Amino acid sequence: xxxxxxxxxxxxxxxKQISELNYIGGAPDTSALIKKEFVDFRVDEELGxxxxxxxxxxxxxxxxxxxxxxxxxRRLAEVSEASLSDIGYSGMKDKRGECTQxxxxxxxxxxxxxxxEIEDGFIEILDAERNSRKLRIGSHKKNRFEILLRQCQGxxxxxxxxxxxxxxxxVPNYFGSQRFGKDMSNLTQVMQLFRSEIEISASDRIxxxxxxxxxxxxxxxxxxxxxxVLSERIQQKNWNQFVPGDVLNxxxxxxxxxVENGCWDDKLQRRLDSFDIHISxxxxxxxxxREKYISNDMAARLEEAVLVKFQNLLCGLISFGLKTNRxxxxxxxxxxxxxxxxxxxxxxxxxxxxxxxxxSLLRELCKISSFGNTGxxx
Length: 378
Fold this sequence. Notes:
This protein is α+β, with helices and mostly antiparallel strands and 378 residues long.
């Protein structure tokens, strides 16, 4: 049923593109090109847990070049004669790049000699370990990036000033354009789904492909709403400053807490300034009555003032029973370094926590065009 949904015209939704969201340092007037060569965009995934070294699941650390994560998973399913749903991976990695990530598959020890069937010029096995459980989405800890910016246009000191700002202020934790699909197609599809008010059939509820597509569309809707709240807080210059009623996130965790009215003090401010804690924003949906960490006071009024403008998306998420959640409004790149290889080539190295987008960092630095899509800002 979900496959029959056709995107409606984008103009009906009056959607904001990523480039229209607010910047912490104002919209950049510098520019650069990425991904001219696969090796210009390198990502290395780090797992967030130790492997048991025993069990029915074989974990493979794979370097893929010019392939999507799903394309690699299909190759593993073919070799292992398993279904695609049996292949585990923690996150999606860029197709146009050289990316290292972990996969899992049910594979007996007697068949391990067949692993070399997977390798070719686009897939290389770097490591193989056993584990007792399948690899799940979101189970990695961080991603290390090495990105070469080519054809840099603008003064060198302007690039470096913006990089220094990123170091000292952090980066708005926007969901990147990948979340919304080409030309915001995921949002047009989810709006068609909401407007149709269709009932998901029993077959769709058990169909893996249909469930994954529906989840992707819902994630796009929630990501879009989150981005609008974050953009408004940047406009109000409180995206990284506490306002009464804010829900705080403990950096590097999924833990949140509230501060009682009048109890914000210098100690908490220092923790916020040192990136030990972050302000959070809403992932919209149905409020669980058992949820303890709900924004209130000024923070709640700010969030509601933004969300009320998007009743179609908000009501759709509620009608399908999506539960609310929270997400930090910023992230801080670890070990951010840069090096000018030539006057027009800038190499960046940094590490990001799970869920943070490299494109959100890059948009604060300069206007980015991707090779093959010159002029299209990410």
